[in-house]
Sequence to fold (181 residues):
Amino acid sequence: MMTWEQIYDYLGIKDFIYFTTSPALQDTLFPIKIVFILFTAFFFCAVIYFYMNSSYLKYQFMQDVTEFFSWQAYGLREINKRIKSVMKRIEGGSEKEYKISILEADDLLYKALEEADVQGDTFEELVEHASRRILPNSDDILQAHKIRNLIVHDVNYRLDSNLAKKTLDDYEKAIRNVYTS
Fold:
């Protein structure tokens, strides 16, 4: 039975270890070690620099902190402000304000669906491809979008306050569903 020391001698491991740790070889490799240490330090600093200057880290950190303290999805506070400003517009009571509110709400929902990575080129395709979990009221949204199209394409289209309020309520529900699901 061979001992570990005899196995090391037999395989030449002992000689290899002595060779690699010899002072002569270490003195020869010292400049190369210094170069590699400098490269490592440079690339480490570059990674830290680019992380600090990129928006990725800020976004990830802010998203987690905001969600933790507000108990809401990231960005929902901003969306709530935008929805309130759209809904506040209808308090003016004029048909022009109703129309502008519907156009803004439609645009807000379109952007929300795009940010949710729903596939589609047109608004109708986005709504069709959104799952029932995201848009449970997709029929109401398509109807609201038809009203929006009438507003845009027919200058003489008349919009009453009840229809405008119902349309805006449908948009509001849909936008909140997109951001909370």
In short: The mean pLDDT is 80. The chain has two domains: 4-53, 73-180. The CA atoms of residues 26 and 33 lie 9 Å apart.
